[in-house]
TrEMBL record:
Membrane-crossing segments per the record: none
EC number: 2.7.13.3
EC top class, as a word: transferase
The protein's name: histidine kinase
Classification via NCBIfam families: sensory_box
Highest classification ranks of the organism: Bacteria, Pseudomonadati, Pseudomonadota, Alphaproteobacteria, Sphingomonadales
UniProt domain PAC: residue ranges: 114-167, 248-300, 370-423
Record Pfam families: HWE_HK, PAS_4
C-alpha cells in the first residue's frame, strides 16, 4: 500500500512520517497488516500524512496512534516510540484529561479544545506553546465510527499577542485615566487638531474657558477660523509649522462661544507617536486678556518674569540686548556684567549661532515665533548649556515688530534625566534578566527535586518570597546594593523572633545585588530546614547568624557562620537535599576559601569564608 511521496523539509525528529508509517510493523498491532487496512483507514492516513498542519489519527479499539510530521513537534521526545502505540501509553500523565475527549469524539461528537498549553522540547530545550485541538470522528465503510482525527493548530503567537494586547490596553487605560484627570484640571484650553487644522478634541478645562456648552457643535470646524486679523494669519502659519514637524507659538485675539473677546497666548506643536511620526497637532491656548488690558496685571507679569527661573530676555531688531531677568543673567554668568553691551550673537558658538541667525530669527519675522533646542554658552566658564530656546516678536501699540523676545528654559536637568533614564533602563533590563535567570533555575530545580506538584508549589512559593524580599531591598536602593543585616532580618523574620529565637550579629556589610539574592535564598533554606528539623522546630532552640570581617582593602576576608543549638539531635543526612545544593550553588562564587557544613549532634553549623570584595561593595 503506497501513500505517495513526501515533499517539503524534513521534520526535526528524523525521517519523514510517510516512510516511518510505511516501514512500521502494523501486523503486530491491533490495526493489522497494512495490506489488510480498509480503504477508509488508508484514505484518512493518506490525507493526514500530507497535511500541512499537525494531525494524529487514533484508530481501533486499542486507540492506536498514527501521526504526521508536524505532529512530532507536539510529541517531542515521545516520538518515534509513539507511532503505533495506544494513546494511553503515550500520554499517561494526561490520560485523565484526554480520555473523556476521545470517548466523546468516538461517540460521534466533534470536540474542540482551544488555547491548550503544551510544553514542547525542541533541540533539548523546553518551550511553552499553546495549541487548538479538534477531535473529529472517522467512519469506516460500514458507517461505523472506527477512529478519530485530531487536528492541531499552533496558536502560540495568537495567545501571546492577545496577552500583549490586554497588557497594552490596561496600560493605555491607566495612561488615559491619568491624562484625562490632568486635562480636566488644566485651566488652559487644550485642543487636538487633525493635519488639516480641524478641531477634533477640546479639554474640559478648555471648554470652560472658551465657554463651550456643546462641543459637538464645533467639532470638525477649521481652527484658524476662530481667529481674526493677524491671529488668523498666525494660526495658519502655526499649522504649517506643525505639519512640518516644528513647534511654534503666537499671541492672538479670539472670542469665546458666548461672544466674549479675549487675548490668547497659543503654543502649537505636532503630536509624535512612538515611531517619531506625527498625524495630529496640539494647540494649547492660555487666556492673557487681563495681562494685555490691565496695567496692574502687566506689572504682575513683569514681577513674574523677574522671579521666573526661565531665561527671559528682549533684544532690538539689530540684536542688541535691552532686557534680561535675573535668572537669565545667572544661567549664563552675567550677574555683574552690563548686558546692554552684548548682542544676541554673543550668547552662542558658531554652530548654534548659525541656527539662531539663519533659522530662528527669520522664522520669527515670517511666522511669528520659533522654538527649539539650542546650546547657550556660559560667559564665565565656557560651559555649553542646553536650552529650550523660544523666540517671538515684540511689537509696539500699532502691532509693528520692534524687537525679539525669548522665554528660554534651562533643560540641563531634563537632559541629565533622559540620560539617567537610558542608563537606568539598561540597568533594569540587566538586573531583570539576572532575576529571571535565578527564578528559572530555582523553578527547574524545585520541580525536579519535589515528589509532587503540591510540595513543589509550596517550596517554590517560599523560595520566591525570599527572593522577593531581596529584590524589595534592592529596589529601594535602585538595585545598587543591599544591607546584609536588613536582608537577614527580612528573610529570617517569618521563622522566629529576631533577637529571641534568631540571633543576628555582625558589622555593617553592603552586599552586591547578585550576592544579595544568593544570601536571601541560602538564609531561607537554612531557616526552613531549622524550622522543620533543627533548632526552630521546637520551643527552646536558637539559631545564630554571625559574620565578621578580617583585614582591610583587597585582602579583607568575610566570614559567615550559621549555628543552631537547643533543637532535636542532629543526624547527618544520607544524601544532600535540594536545599543544601541550593545553598552551595548560591554562595559558591562568594566563599571560595572555605565552605563547610558540620552536622553536630547539638545543632547544625555552616561556616563560610571568602574575599570580602567578591560579595560586598
Amino acid at each position: 500500500m503506497d501513500f505517495g511521496k513526501d515533499e517539503g523539509r524534513p521534520p526535526e525528529h528524523g525521517p519523514m512520517m510517510t516512510e516511518r508509517v510505511r516501514a512500521h510493523d502494523w501486523a503486530a498491532s491491533s490495526v493489522g497488516a497494512m495490506a489488510d487496512w480498509p480503504q477508509s483507514l488508508c484514505t484518512a492516513v493518506d490525507i493526514m500524512l500530507h497535511a500541512g498542519q499537525a494531525m494524529c489519527l487514533i484508530w481501533g479499539a486499542d486507540r492506536i496512534q498514527i501521526y504526521n510530521d508536524e505532529y512530532t513537534r507536539i510529541l517531542g521526545d515521545r516520538h518515534p516510540a509513539a507511532l503505533g502505540r495506544p494513546a494511553s501509553e503515550t500520554w499517561p500523565e494526561r490520560w485523565d484529561v484526554l480520555h473523556p475527549l476521545i470517548d466523546r469524539a468516538l461517540s460521534g461528537e466533534r470536540v474542540a479544545v482551544r488555547d491548550q498549553p503544551v510544553t514542547m522540547t525542541r533541540h533539548g530545550v523546553d518551550e511553552q506553546s499553546w495549541w487548538d485541538f479538534a477531535y473529529s470522528p472517522v467512519h469506516d465503510e460500514s458507517g461505523r465510527i472506527a477512529g478519530l482525527l485530531n487536528i492541531c493548530s499552533d496558536v502560540t503567537e495568537r495567545v501571546r499577542a492577545l496577552r500583549d494586547r490586554d497588557m497594552a490596553f490596561e496600560n493605555l487605560r491607566e495612561r488615559e485615566s491619568f491624562t484625562g484627570s490632568v486635562l480636566a484640571s488644566s485651566t488652559d484650553c487644550i485642543k487636538v487638531l487633525d493635519l488639516e487644522g480641524r478641531l477634533a478634541f477640546m479639554s474640559d478645562g478648555g471648554q470652560r474657558v472658551m465657554e463651550v456648552s456643546d462641543f459637538n457643535a464645533i467639532v470638525g470646524c477649521p481652527w484658524p477660523d476662530f481667529w481674526t486679523g493677524n491671529g488668523n494669519r498666525d494660526a495658519k502659519a502655526a499649522l504649517e509649522a506643525a505639519r512640518a514637524g516644528q513647534s511654534s507659538s503666537f499671541i492672538g485675539r479670539a472670542s469665546t462661544m458666548k461672544g466674549n473677546w479675549k487675548w490668547w497666548h497659543v503654543a502649537v506643536s505636532p503630536i509624535f507617536d512612538a515611531d517619531g511620526r506625527w498625524d495630529r497637532i496640539l494647540s494649547v491656548s492660555r487666556d492673557i486678556t487681563e495681562l494685555r488690558e490691565s496695567e496692574e496685571e502687566r506689572d504682575r507679569f513683569v514681577r513674574l518674569v523677574e522671579n521666573s527661573t526661565d531665561f527671559v530676555a528682549m533684544a532690538h531688531l539689530d540684536g542688541r540686548i535691552f532686557y534680561m531677568n535675573d535668572a537669565a543673567r545667572g544661567i549664563v554668568g552675567l550677574e555683574d556684567v552690563d548686558y546692554t553691551t552684548l548682542s544676541i550673537a554673543d550668547f552662542f558658538l558658531p554652530d548654534a549661532l548659525e541656527i539662531v541667525m539663519h533659522e530662528a530669527l527669520p522664522a520669527v519675522a515670517e511666522r511669528g515665533s520659533w522654538s527649539g533646542d539650542v546650546l547657550f554658552r556660559h560667559f564665565g566658564t565656557g560651559e555649553l548649556i542646553p536650552m529650550l530656546y523660544s523666540v517671538f516678536p515684540i511689537t509696539d501699540a500699532s502691532g509693528e515688530m520692534v524687537g525679539y523676545g525669548t522665554v528660554t528654559r534651562d533643560i540641563r536637568e531634563r537632559k541629565q534625566a533622559e540620560e539617567d533614564m537610558r542608563y537606568l533602563n539598561g540597568e533594569l533590563a540587566h538586573r531583570l534578566k539576572n532575576v529571571l535567570t535565578v527564578i528559572q533555575s530555582i523553578a527547574q530545580q524545585t520541580l525536579r527535586n519535589s515528589p509532587d506538584t503540591q510540595t513543589a508549589g509550596k517550596a517554590l512559593s517560599a523560595r520566591l518570597v525570599a527572593l522577593g524580599g531581596a529584590t524589595d531591598i534592592l529596589t529601594g536602593k535602585s538595585w545598587r546594593s543591599a544591607d546584609l543585616r536588613e536582608l537577614a532580618e527580612r528573610t529570617l523574620a517569618p521563622h522566629g523572633g529576631i533577637g529571641e529565637r534568631i540571633i543576628i550579629d555582625g558589622p555593617p556589610i553592603v552586599l552586591q545585588p547578585e550576592a544579595s539574592m544568593a544570601f536571601a535564598l541560602a538564609l531561607h533554606e537554612l531557616a526552613t530546614n531549622a524550622a522543620k528539623y533543627g533548632a526552630l522546630s521546637n520551643h527552646t532552640g536558637i539559631a545564630t547568624l554571625h559574620w565578621s570581617v578580617e583585614g582591610v582593602g583587597g585582602d579583607a576576608r568575610l566570614s559567615v557562620q550559621w549555628s543552631e543549638r537547643g533543637g532535636p539531635p542532629v543526624i547527618p543526612p544520607r544524601c544532600k537535599g535540594f536545599g543544601s545544593v541550593l545553598i552551595e550553588r548560591s554562595l559558591r562564587s562568594y566563599f571560595r576559601e572555605l565552605s563547610a557544613t558540620d552536622y553536630r549532634p547539638e545543632g547544625l553549623m555552616l561556616k563560610l569564608r571568602g574575599r570580602l570584595a567578591d560579595a560586598a561593595l
